[in-house]
Design brief:
Elements lengths: L1 H28 L3 H33 L7 H27 L5 H27 L2
Helix pairs in contact: 1-2, 1-4, 2-3, 3-4
The structure holds protoporphyrin IX containing FE.
């Protein structure tokens, strides 16, 4: 049951990662300005899913072992980077949804660079969290 739960959470978490990086790249390099608002909604959902499933990993461990995952050093740093990416990515994508009609092309491009860049940083940190924990 425990392995099944971890695998289920990981599946959703992996799909969230694909959405964030994929939609981030599409929004930055290929999308037309008209479609970027919808893409930013998807981005905001993606960041939310990552936050929720990330927390679900911790909650599952707590449920079965009555303590949070025992991680140190590089793994803690990687986790903190991921959490910071989730918070910043969600705030930027949500602000983009609310304000996009008033943004200059330069600011719009900067916002998409941030969304894509934070996704790349988070997915790279995932590798360090995985192999240092
Ligand atoms: C609140 C934020 C997050 C938390 C708490 C979190 C937590 C976790 C945990 C506990 C794992 C399992 C690590 C292991 O196998 O030892 C994991 C794996 C993973 N996470 Fe996150 N994560 C967060 C955000 C993100 C984000 C934003 C992305 C990508 C955009 C991401 C991508 C991944 C990937 C790809 C894996 C699989 C790594 C592998 O097995 O090689 N995570 N995450």
């Amino acid at each position: 049951m425990q392995s099944f739960l971890y695998a289920l959470i990981q599946s959703i978490h992996n799909i969230g990662a694909v959405v964030i990086v994929g939609v981030g790249a599409y929004g930055l390099f290929f999308a037309h300005q008209n479609t970027r608002r919808v893409l930013a909604v998807v981005q905001a959902l993606g960041w939310s899913i990552q936050g929720l499933t990330g927390a679900a990993f911790g909650a599952t461990t707590f449920y079965f072992y009555h303590q949070l995952p025992d991680i140190h050093g590089v793994a803690i740093l990687a986790l903190l980077i991921k959490i910071s990416c989730v918070v910043s990515g969600f705030v930027i994508s949500a602000l983009y949804v609310l304000l996009c009609s008033r943004l200059s092309p330069e600011i719009s491009k900067f916002a998409w660079s941030m969304m894509f860049g934070l996704g790349v940083i988070a997915i790279s940190s995932a590798a360090f969290l995985r192999w240092y924990s």
